[in-house]
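Readers of this paper often ask what the protein records in our data store actually look like. An entry from our holdings is shown next, in its original layout:
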Amino acid sequence: MKAVFIVYNQALTERVAALLEKTNTRGFTQWQDVMGRGTKTGEPHMGTHTWPAMNSAILSVVDPEKAERLLREVEELNKTAEAQGVRAFTWDVAEMVG
């Protein structure tokens, strides 16, 4: 199994939800009001007067094939929404309960 962690500007919430629906990704955990700054470009998302934007994040544990599809979908979304910002990261899940 793979953990897929997606961090995105809250302005992209509906588009990320559509991406999860499109890939039939049912199980996930979502965090709202996530602060941060990207490593390459873009403005910080800190929820302050100076940097008002905020991020959300989603974590989903899926099979490797679905993880690859999610990454491709996030990559395509980022091409059309680069100014807002969306990133995805994966890692192996060694064990799972439940």
